[in-house]
Amino acid sequence: MYKPEKTTAERTRPPPVKVLSGQLRTANSGNGYVMNLGRGRSLLVSLVWMQGTVVDVQLDRNTALLVDETGTFAVQGVDNIPKGKPCLSQGKYVMVMGVVQAVSPEPVIRAVKMADLSELAALHRRMWKLEVATLSRW
User: Fold this and answer.
1) E strand or H helix that includes residue 9
2) Taking a C-beta distance cutoff of 8 angstroms, is the pair 11, 58 a contact?
3) What is the spatial distance between Cα 65 and Cα 63, in angstroms, rounded to a whole number?
4) Is the N or C terminus of the chain more exposed, i.e. has fewer CB atoms within 10 Å?
5) Where along the chain do its domains lie?
6) Tens of pLDDT along the chain (138 residues)?
7) 128 touches 109 (CB < 8 A)
8) Second CATH level (architecture) for the domain 16-131
């Protein structure tokens, strides 16, 4: 099976960072996006893993609006995601991995992957808070 060569940026990009929209909203932009983790620590983020509930889908604009415990965030490029369309129903709880496009006034990410987590949404929501909190203690 043919696998295209990865670009230099793809080879050097760190793994996705698990974040809440509120954390991303307060990131500083400039040369990338820098999240303040507290106690003098910060983290450069470009690829993020976020989870939330689908609030609105605008297929004509190739976007979706999601909400997590800390606010809303926009997801672009939803039409380009393999198996992404089944996730695009209002009320579904989904995971989105993508590249940060903007952090203010609302985080915007360009989707790379989406998955429907609705079947066990209550469990996923509880675990998500713990997974993200672990990063802050790191």
Assistant:
1) helix 8-12
2) no
3) 7
4) N
5) 16-131
6) 555 565 555 556 678 889 989 889 988 887 778 887 777 878 888 899 999 999 999 989 999 999 999 999 999 999 888 766 678 889 999 999 999 999 989 999 999 999 988 887 777 777 788 788 776 655
7) no
8) Beta Barrel (2.40)
